[in-house]
User: Fold this.
Amino acid sequence: MRHSRKKYKIGTTPAHRKALVKNLMIEVIDHGKIKTTHAKCKAVQGYVEKIITLAKEDTVANRRLAFSKLNNKAAVQKLFTEVAPKFKDRNGGYTRVMKLADGRVGDNAKMSYIALVD
Assistant:
């Protein structure tokens, strides 16, 4: 049985989905807020939350784990020096998904922002 096994498939192959989530995580860490479809926001939210929780404790092992997930040195550096220290006293809930009223122009897909909580 597949209880509690929900996965956002986003209409792609597993390899494409993995690369897409990785790139979205890097963009959220770099910019703090990105605009994309609602399904992609919900799909990446859990990954961003987990990597910020990992980065709250700055050790070599945690940096290597974060690099294995992000594969981007600049993003790992920013994650450990700027993003994670802001959330030292917060127990989860580091991101917020805000729905937009209008859909995307071409296909009317539901759009949202995913942003780090200040």
User: Anything to note?
Assistant: The domain at 14-116 is CATH 3.90.1030.10 (50s Ribosomal Protein L17; Chain: A,). The longest helix spans residues 14-31. The first strand starts at residue 33 and ends at 37.
